[in-house]
Amino acid sequence: MVRRGLALAALVGALGLLLASCATDLPARTVEQRYTTAASQFITLTDGTRLHVRDEGNRNGPVLVLVHGSNGALQSWEPWVAALKDTHRLISMDLPGHGLTGPNPARNYSGATYVGVVDELVTRLGIDRFFIAGNSMGGAVAWRYALAHPGKLQGMILIDAAGYPREGEGASNQKPPLIFRLVRTPGVGEFLSTFTTRGLLRSNLEQVFVDDRLVTDAMVNQYFDLLMREGNRQATLDRMRAAPDAPEAWRQISTITVPALIQWGDGDAWIPVSDAARFSRDLRHDRTIIYPGVGHLPQEEAPAASARDAAAFVADVKAGRFVGQ
Predict the structure, then answer these.
(1) pLDDT of residue 127
(2) Integer-rounded Cα radius of gyration of the chain
(3) Residue 164 scores a pLDDT above 60
């Protein structure tokens, strides 16, 4: 009886811990009050998406559109904005299913949808020609934008960019991150989504930085709050479980002719640095910079160097002196 009682107590305790970690969504208004700034604006797109945008910096400078990665937000670009705002116009956004934008009304988070979001945004802002920079998933959005609208781009910056398959023909040897594979697994993904914890988020963040000291409590709280914004967890499941809308698009990378800067951290545990060489091989007009001791987010882990190199690339392209490798 004693053993049975102890086992029951342990079970009740475990259930209690699970229930305690079963965090509920945060109302959109609550999260917006925490993370909007004076630069924040919300633009309602034609599909009903209420897009969170920041349009900052020098209105007379070169325009640089910044696209964050999977489960990221526009805050990822704040170090670049701080470094470049005196000389560049910097436009960042929370892609649908992320940050303060929240879910897409049609629950559509395809690459083509994200390319359309970028294009509608620059059109709304009256921007005809610009540079685009994308990190990780945002890098894939950048090169797919170059395929769809080459005449609008002056250049693109690919930062630890997604694009090449992880399995099958042309694949690298590195599998997708474990958390992505778990979220795509029926049942497991729902469990992880329901029992979201700051500890799990901290563990994932520590994988994308080489220097774990950069993963502060403030950073973890920000990622947690933005993920918990109502609708974002379900959007993550929808996005990661959807079939790729253009699984063969990577074969067209070699047709891109706009000048490209490839930036990569040599310690990237999520997308191998060997993919930087693949982009460099396939692109016709590129410059590649590898950052030693840096992980998946050079714009955050090496902000001064990566922003400086981005500014030099933009200046060289505009002056007609860009020379690729």
Answers:
(1) 98
(2) 20
(3) yes
Domain ranges of the chain: 24-319
CA separation for the pair 224, 207 (Å, rounded): 16
What count of other Cβ atoms lies within 10 Å of the Cβ of residue 117? 22
DSSP string, 32-74: HHHH--TTEEEEE-TTS-EEEEEEEE-TTS-EEEEE--TT--G
Note the pTM of the prediction, 2 decimals.
Answer: 0.88
Cβ-based neighbours of 296, under 8 Å, separated by 6 or more = 69, 135, 136, 160, 207, 208, 209, 265, 268, 269, 270, 271
* CA 67 – CA 40 distance, rounded (Å): 16
The token pair at 29 is 């208004």
**Residue 33, Cβ neighbours under 10 Å: how many?**
9
Dihedral sign for Cα 97, 143, 79, 301, please: positive
Whether 171 contacts 165, CB under 8 Å: yes
Q: Tell me how far apart the alpha carbons of residues 26 and 228 are, in angstroms, rounded to a whole number.
A: 5
Residues pairing with 132 in the sheet: 65, 156
CATH architecture of 24-319: 3-Layer(aba) Sandwich (3.40)
Distance from C-alpha of 46 to C-alpha of 216, rounded to nearest angstrom = 38
Q: What letter does residue 75 receive in the DSSP assignment?
A: G
Residues 228 and 25: beta-carbon distance below 8 Å: yes
Q: CA dist 249 to 123, 139, 199, Å?
A: 24, 13, 36
3-state secondary structure of 13: helix
Per-residue pLDDT at 201 exceeds 70: yes
The winner for highest mean pLDDT among 169-183, 236-250, 257-271 is 257-271
Q: What is the rounded distance in angstroms from the CA atom of residue 88 to the CA atom of residue 314?
A: 10
